[in-house]
From TrEMBL:
Entry-linked Pfam families: TonB_dep_Rec_b-barrel (PF00593)
Domain TonB-dependent receptor-like beta-barrel: 7-522
Record-given protein name: TonB-dependent receptor-like beta-barrel domain-containing protein
InterPro entries found in the cross-reference section: Beta-barrel_TonB (IPR000531), Beta-barrel_TonB_sf (IPR036942), TonB-dep_rcpt-like (IPR039426)
Length: 564
């Protein structure tokens, strides 16, 4: 890491920064979960709901079988220019920055595709006619009639995209230019406008040119696809890459109508272009207006009401699916539309701070990047994602002591049900309680903080936008209806605590020295973060179910820094 500041004048600053991180390790291919369930041991996959012992039909696939050697390398560089503004409208503040981030992830499987991954007991369903393949053979397994076993290769168990080497690149670059005018220096009233540009490029360097397929390479190559049942879905198409560009302009201002009332409003206009892996060009655009009203009847009491309407065009997604030739994109993708209304209340005093917030989010035209139908398109217009939520927090203070408590919860819903985890949005969690206690001794520069986080148990019948094909029916025993897209999700609750110590000596000779110690999960609890995605989008049409990977146990970090 390196950072250089250049002071061109009393008001002009130029900053160049660079950092690089690299890690390498042997690890599971998909580190966010520890296993899946597959219906290999069912004699007849389609007859699964009629099995007398449906639990016997679920084979637990251990994700640790798929060991890989991976190297994760990230380079970040940025150049920033800033000019301090004055108190007059004609002397604005200027901020210009350019940035580039290059991330490379190399993944090499530590197994061969045709090696046997595991062997399980297997008995074919006697109701099947003799000429029919049993489920072991149908899913690529090797059936041993003598031993009554099914041997499954890594390729059959995980799919071709899982066993292939990967050399993934994500390149994100762009620049921002901002101009900020002072309207009223006394009330911090500002007028701000600017220009933004972003380029996001993704590709897999491990895919050879011989695997690329463009329009005209074959009679059915890259033909336009209008739906998941379109016959053209069978045609291969592979550009090995997705490239997006975003150009936007914006303007916003706030003005004090009364010493107790401030109104803010703004809008931005963005143009999105995306060339997807199917060689198709998508061009979308739209306005994103917003407004906020702040009312402060007392100096230490504030109410804020805000509304935002956001337009977001399609962007590259699902880089691990880049090798999936039969994953196809709708040519007529629409921009996603998000709306957010929020009300906040804040109260601050010498001995007590309080904050409460409630919000409602609506998301329409959601682009389903990981559909089990392997067809990337918008959700139907009537399928609006609804996310209400709240947060309440309070902190009591006395001299160097403080005690705080916060409670938060949101309910992301679709089709009248809480949604299963969605990578592009968020994971569904239970009620979250955070308790903090701290003590600071100003004379010595010592600060001690205790933080405990409790999450309540969550068990519900979810709707998954990923698992939305007619054959996507939950095959595990539960009280949930056997309806496509509806799955039972159980996330156990947990409580975890951490301890923080910060020491900043007050002696003049040691000014600038900082000592920090962090002790995480001090009681060494074994738990799975509910915010970790549970559903696996990797191959959802293969009826796989993920279980989240446990968080680290007790761990500590120490840091010494000196600023001069």
């Amino acid at each position: 890491m390196a950072k250089i500041n250049g002071y061109l004048s009393d008001r002009d600053t130029l900053t160049l920064s660079y950092n690089m991180t690299r890690d390498n390790a042997n690890r599971p291919l998909r580190a966010n979960f520890t296993g899946t369930f597959l219906p290999y041991s069912c004699g007849d996959f389609n007859a699964f709901p009629n099995e007398q012992n449906p639990d016997d039909c679920l084979f637990e696939n251990d994700a640790s079988l798929f060991k890989t050697y991976s190297v994760n390398l990230v380079h970040n560089v940025s150049l920033n220019y800033e000019r301090e503004g004055g108190s007059r409208f004609g002397d604005p503040k200027l901020k210009i920055n350019g940035y580039t981030s290059i991330r490379n992830v190399q993944i090499d499987p530590l197994f061969r595709p045709n090696d046997i991954a595991t062997t399980i007991p297997f008995t074919p369903n006697p109701q099947l006619s003799q000429g029919e393949e049993n489920q072991c053979v149908a899913q690529g397994g090797i059936y041993d009639a003598t031993k009554q076993t099914c041997s499954i290769t890594f390729k059959s168990l995980g799919g071709g995209s899982v066993v292939a080497n990967k050399n993934l690149f994500i390149i994100n670059s762009g620049f921002n230019a901002n101009v900020i005018h002072t309207i009223d220096h006394k009330n911090d009233n500002l007028l701000e406008y600017g220009l933004n540009y972003q380029n996001l490029t993704t590709f897999d360097k491990a895919i050879p040119n011989s695997e690329l397929v463009k329009p005209g390479d074959a009679p059915d190559a890259c033909l336009r696809v209008t739906g998941p049942n379109d016959p053209n879905m069978n045609g291969r198409c592979q550009r090995n890459g997705a490239t997006a560009n975003v150009v936007g302009v914006y303007a916003q201002a706030n003005y004090t109508l009364h010493p107790m009332v401030t109104l803010g409003a703004g809008t931005r206009y963005d143009v999105y272009t995306l060339v997807d892996k199917d060689w198709q060009l998508h061009v979308t655009q739209g306005f994103s207006p917003s407004a906020a009203l702040n009312v402060s009847p007392l100096e230490n009491l504030n109410f804020r009401l805000s509304y935002a309407y956001v337009t977001r065009g399609p962007m590259p997604g699902g880089l691990v699916w880049m090798r999936q030739d039969n994953l196809r994109y709708n040519r007529n993708l629409k921009p996603e539309i998000g709306q957010n209304a929020e009300f906040n209340t804040e109260y601050n005093s010498e001995y007590f701070d309080f904050r409460a917030a409630g919000f409602v989010q609506l998301i329409s035209n959601y682009i389903n990047q990981f559909s089990s139908t392997l067809f990337v398109t918008n959700l139907p217009a009537q399928d609006i994602i609804y996310v209400p939520g709240y947060e309440v927090s309070g902190t009591a203070k006395y001299k160097g002591f403080s005690l705080g408590l916060s409670v938060a919860r949101s309910w992301p819903s679709l089709k009248g049900r809480l949604i299963a985890d969605v990578y592009e949005l968020a994971a569904t969690t239970g009620n979250v309680f955070i308790l903090t206690a701290s003590y600071t001794i100003p004379r010595t520069g010592l600060s001690i903080t205790w933080l405990s986080r409790f999450v309540t148990d969550l068990s519900y019948c979810s709707y998954s936008p990923y698992r939305n094909s007619p054959t996507d029916i939950d095959r595990r025993p539960s009280d949930c209806p056997k309806t496509p897209g509806i799955f039972h999700v159980h996330k156990p609750g947990y409580g975890v605590s951490s301890f923080f110590i910060t020491y900043k000596p007050t002696y003049k000779k040691l000014k600038g020295l900082s000592l920090n110690a962090v002790f995480n999960n001090v009681f060494n609890q074994q738990y799975i973060n509910q915010a970790s995605p549970v559903m696996s989008p990797d191959e959802p049409n293969q009826d796989k179910y993920a279980r989240g990977m446990a968080e680290p146990g007790f761990n500590a970090r120490f840091e010494i820094s000196y600023k001069f």
